Amino acid sequence: MHLPAIPQLETERLVLRGPEAADFGPVAAFFADEARSWGFGGPLDRNEAWRWFAMSVGHWAIRGFGFWTITCKDTGAALGITGLWQPEGWPEPELGWVAFPAGEGRGIMAEAARAARTHAYEVMGLPALCSNIFPGNTRSVALAERLGAVFEKDFDNPKHGRELVYRHPAPAASCDGGMEAYA
């Protein structure tokens, strides 16, 4: 097994690239903040965050897809993560996202998630995507709905318990735009 070449995606303001060692610091800070990370399985101590980070890199090798680091095109600053994952027990690939503090409040997560979804549909050929969201995570629900996803059902996540499944529009119904290039 080898790590495949991770595609780089670009939007008007962002570059979505594969994870790099320097991304661990912002990921660990995110997971250390209970108020920010509870909706993504946190909080996690630094060792647990490292295991999550390493798992997310390995996910690319096992599944051929995973989380990209969202960076500012102008500065290279890490703004969050978005991408697709399907750990053991997930019934299908999920589109997920996490904003770091510098990535909040500017439409960055929507722009990045649209780019990841467009890649999943147009390049990977996936027929459908969902986002599994913890009950009470109103910001993620709002983003899912902004992306056109609708509540479909409850899902009993093998690790986290009850989650809400939001179904994204099918590829033919999706008019994402926003993709400038695949580098």
UniProtKB/TrEMBL annotation:
GO MF annotation terms: acyltransferase activity, transferring groups other than amino-acyl groups
| Domain N-acetyltransferase per the UniProt entry, residue ranges | 13-149
Pfam families per the UniProt record, alphabetical: Acetyltransf_3
Known InterPro entries for this protein? Answer: Acyl_CoA_acyltransferase, GNAT_dom, N-acetyltransferase
Matching entries from PANTHER family are given as: GNAT FAMILY, PUTATIVE (AFU_ORTHOLOGUE AFUA_3G00765)-RELATED-RELATED (PTHR43792), N-ACETYLTRANSFERASE DOMAIN-CONTAINING PROTEIN (PTHR43792:SF1)
What name does UniProt use for this protein? GNAT family N-acetyltransferase
**Taxonomic source organism:** Leisingera aquaemixtae
